[in-house]
């Protein structure tokens, strides 16, 4: 049941994507569809291009698999796993793009005062989110691991592209940024091959290429965070850009009648517990939106909105007390589907 809720959430995203985005395309356009399970989620490509471009879409799938093989903590021989296995032992040389993602993750760690933390691997493992046996760990176990999430304890060498986790037990996890990086890479690759229209869905990380048509942007939907059934709470226009949603409702388990989210607070080691239900960040770089959306969920609506403004990023924060908080440029174009929620800015 625990794992099924996560998969149901993914399928809901795919359904909403087809409902709000794909149905608007001309039936005369050739549609190339591909999907793959990678980076811990189902990934779906739907692009509009001549059939001879299909080989490029197939190549894009291989690119995603390659990124997963190098950057996933769940892949035993990935570069990230090698770094983790050598924690407290010695540095590990990695590829340039893996190094760049780690470097960006550390940068956002500083920007967000440590709320975005790529060293939460030990906590994720402790809570059981690497498998289907999640549980609430003992307080003393959490306290034991908290020092291992200190971002100052990772050493990086830009010249040699080496990464060193200085204490045994430390573990990197790029789950809050690698999907965004992959989406950016695929979007850039397909555009470079002349594919200028389509939708790339990385399980909540959405990249739309171009516009729906010459007169209209795509119309994307944000899933209702308080309903189990497939439904949307917000729709908004988007063209040639990305929208990344993070939320405490996305993946969770219940114990003794209490719901625990997969988003863990690196300050406390516990499941996030605040008024934020979901955060969607809009922009032109999915890796940035990925990291920031996670940080805003943890920061809460007030500090989260302040972070968005400081970074000049656009976003939508949906709260448990039924507010939809939108940044100024989104506020004027947003459409709310549930009248019990109040739109504010």
Account of the 3D structure:
The protein is α+β, with helices and mostly antiparallel strands and 345 residues long. The chain has 10 helices and 17 strands. The chain has helices at 2-20, 54-71, 79-85, 96-111, 121-127, 139-145, 178-192, 286-299, 301-310, 328-331; strands spanning 31-38, 41-48, 92-93, 154-157, 162-165, 198-202, 205-209, 218-223, 232-238, 241-247, 252-255, 258-261, 276-283, 314-319, 323-326, 335-336, 342-344. The chain has a 9-stranded mixed sheet with strand order 1-2-6-7-10-13-14-15-17, with helices on both faces. The chain has a 3-stranded antiparallel sheet with strand order 3-5-4, covered by helices on one side. Strands 8-9-16 form a 3-stranded antiparallel sheet. Strand 8 (218-223) and strand 9 form a beta hairpin. The protein is globular and about 60 Å long. It starts with a helix and ends with a strand.
How would you briefly describe this protein structure?
Helix content is 34%, strand content 25%. It has helices at 2-20, 54-71, 79-85, 96-111, 121-127, 139-145, 178-192, 286-299, 301-310, 328-331; strands at residues 31-38, 41-48, 92-93, 154-157, 162-165, 198-202, 205-209, 218-223, 232-238, 241-247, 252-255, 258-261, 276-283, 314-319, 323-326, 335-336, 342-344.
Write the layout of secondary structure elements.
Layout: H1 2-20, E1 31-38, E2 41-48, H2 54-71, H3 79-85, E3 92-93, H4 96-111, H5 121-127, H6 139-145, E4 154-157, E5 162-165, H7 178-192, E6 198-202, E7 205-209, E8 218-223, E9 232-238, E10 241-247, E11 252-255, E12 258-261, E13 276-283, H8 286-299, H9 301-310, E14 314-319, E15 323-326, H10 328-331, E16 335-336, E17 342-344
Parallel strand pairs: 15-17
Antiparallel strand pairs: 1-2, 2-6, 3-5, 4-5, 6-7, 7-10, 8-9, 9-16, 10-13, 11-12, 13-14, 14-15
